[in-house]
Design goal:
Elements lengths: L1 H11 L19 H6 L2 H11 L6 H35 L42 E2 L20 E2 L1
Antiparallel strand pairs: 1-2
Length: about 160
């Protein structure tokens, strides 16, 4: 019962179960001596051909689709995190910007000042409250010409 279920599962798999459909193939038995005489590139070809993973147009198209899907998933996750931060930052009240305070240096054997360092808003997002974000998901994003003239297609513009 278990063996039949495993066989049924293996046959249903698109790539992994193809070995179950090997019918009418020429049987080939390689001895260790023959195997050691074959070039490494030929062995690689034989193994990849056996398991149907050679670089064919069909496979390249399939791999490109997987790459694109994975890329878009990472971009969506990144865009969601940045959008959350952008919305939080844009909803804050506009504050007067503080000038950069130089670090205070103390001489040897001199006491450090008692007042804690003032925490400044750090980063580019802290300087404005009108940030916009464009993401290349589900559309072909064109780089805004008011920022720079280019034919490049960015994934994300902030």
């Amino acid at each position: 019962m278990v063996v039949k279920e495993m066989r049924r599962q293996a046959v249903s798999l698109a790539k992994q179960g193809q070995w179950m459909r090997w019918e009418g193939l020429e049987r080939r038995k390689l001895s260790w001596r023959e195997l050691w005489e074959v070039e490494a590139s030929n062995i690689s070809f034989i193994i990849r051909a056996t398991y149907d993973v050679l670089h064919s147009p069909k496979h390249l198209h399939q791999w490109y689709g997987r790459y694109t899907w994975r890329h878009n998933q990472v971009l969506k996750s990144l865009a969601a995190a940045l959008e959350s931060k952008r919305n939080t930052n844009n909803s804050l009240p506009l504050r007067a910007t503080k000038s950069f305070m130089a670090p205070t240096f103390t001489r040897e054997r001199q006491k450090k000042p008692n007042h804690p360092a003032t925490k400044l808003e750090v980063g580019q997002l802290g300087m404005a409250r009108d940030w916009k974000m464009l993401v290349d998901i589900g559309q072909q994003l064109i780089f805004p010409p008011e920022i720079a003239a280019t034919t490049l297609r960015p994934d994300l513009v902030l």
